[in-house]
Amino acid sequence: MRSEIKISNVDNLQYVIFIVFLLFSIHFWDIRYIPQKLNAENMLTWLACGYCLVMVIQKKNLHFKNAIILFMIGLMINILTAYLNFGQSPKDTILSFEYQYFILLYFMLHLIKPNIKFLENTIIIFAILYSIIYIVQVTIFPYRIVTSGLIFDRGKFQFEILGHGFLMLGYFLILNRFLLDRKPKNILLAIGFFIVLLLMGFRTKIAGALLVTLIMIFRTIRFDMKDLGIIVVVVLLFIGLFQLPGPSNLLKDFSSDTQKNLKEGKNYVRLRQLKFFFNEYPQNVSYYIFGGGKHGGKSIYNFRMKSFEQNYNIVWVDLGILGFYIVIGAVALAGMLWYTFKAIFIKLPNDKQYLNFYFVFLLIVSFTTSEIFSSGVFTVVAIALYLIDMSVNEKSDPDTLTINKKRLLLSNK
Predict the structure, then answer these.
(1) How far is the CA of 216 from the CAs of 140, 159, 213, in angstroms?
(2) Alpha carbon distance 411, 398 (integer Å)
(3) What burial class does residue 58 get, using C-beta atoms within 10 Å of its C-beta: 0-12 exposed, 13-18 middle, 19+ buried?
(4) What does each C-alpha distance from 374 to 11, 101, 324 come to in angstroms?
(5) 19-24-25 Cα angle (round to 5)
(6) How far is 188 from 194, CA to CA, in rounded Å?
(7) 8 A C-beta contact, residue 108 and residue 48
(8) What is the rounded CA–CA span in Å between residue 77 and residue 70?
């Protein structure tokens, strides 16, 4: 019994340490009242992740190890291309990738080996905390409780606070649970998360979430009378949601904005951005392989790109993975798409299929948004990939399942 208690205490300490690094990776949602030493916190997290990578690199059943390593190699190459093409210092480029490095939390998770229930509860809690912070910030604006994430688009202010990836993963997790257990509390929480997504006001993400929701429903139901009744209830809830003044106005805005974009024709901003980054930005063929280089810091290159953004609305992230390809490079993109497609098509138990669908969502919205590589999302991706590993390994290895069940029982005591 003493040894079991000791093991449980060690696990709890490791879980606390992981939560601390998790908060470091999303900068505590950028809440202005939480004192932070960002450079020190980032560096500590990167060093800890690097240590974990070395410790687990030889282990089996890390299904996404090679894809993540390829992604990281692509980032390292991009540091060189930014220096060769624009004279930007390696330090500036290295620091510009601060959020991308947090995908290495995947290896920390494999060293700590937290159980699935702990991580799923963490996802839900972080999604709820994000929702609370978001609603408070929107309600009290222009007074600000966060230091970043304010966007001015289509004549309106939008917020995308760090940690929004937890909102989306939490939404698909709770929706998956509802489709399996039919508990009203789950559908109400899922709708709550969706309302926050609506408040964010990003057309592509809302449409992508709705599409994946429909796919999840039709993949899960059995088309008997009970399931058809569930579908009717869910559809009515969503229809009722869009009848409320706020969501209704958002739909009208989305419709008018879309019509306006269609009328712009060749002057549509996405087409102008595409023309610039694929015709004018590349100075040689290496841009199409290794990328031009990510701008950052106090370099002239960064000043130039910020000027294009402010004066001409020329922004590479608006092009999604196409912008990522031409600026960051094909090597990093290959790694990112490798783990994304693998996560989509890997076979998972019914109660873990929300992980497949989360990556379907990331892929769907990746052509006109930066969601798949946005600030903070790599933390969530690392957790999702680890959960996929755990689900697959438990299914194929009975011993792993037994060990994790014992750890779960100990943690519940």
Answers:
(1) 35, 27, 5
(2) 20
(3) exposed
(4) 31, 12, 11
(5) 95
(6) 10
(7) yes
(8) 11
Per residue in 115-141, pLDDT (tens digit) is 999 999 999 999 999 999 999 988 888
When computed from its CA atoms, the radius of gyration of the chain, rounded to whole angstroms, is 22
Would you say residue 7 has pLDDT above 50? no
Q: How far is CA 60 from CA 56, 63, 103, 106, 389, in A?
A: 9, 8, 19, 14, 10
Q: Which residues contact 243 (CB under 8 A, 6 or more apart)?
A: none
Kindly report the pTM of this predicted structure. 0.88
**Are 82 and 295 spatial neighbours (Cβ–Cβ below 8 Å)?**
yes
Cα 106 to Cα 11, 84, 109, distances in angstroms? 17, 31, 5
pLDDT for 204 equals 87
- Residue 31 DSSP SS3: strand
- The H or E element spanning position 214 is helix 203-220
Which amino acid is located at 181 in the chain? D
HEC sequence for 148-167: CCEEEECCEEEECCCCHHHH
Residues 215, 3: Cα–Cα separation, whole Å: 47
**pLDDT surpasses 70 at 197:** yes
- Across the range 371-397, mean pLDDT stands at 91
The sign of the torsion formed by the CA atoms of 55, 60, 61, 63 equals: positive
Residue 389's Cα: distance from chain center in Å? 18
Closest CA to 180 of 353, 355, 395, 361: 353
Residue with tokens 């957790």: 383
| Alpha carbon distance 154, 285 (integer Å) | 35
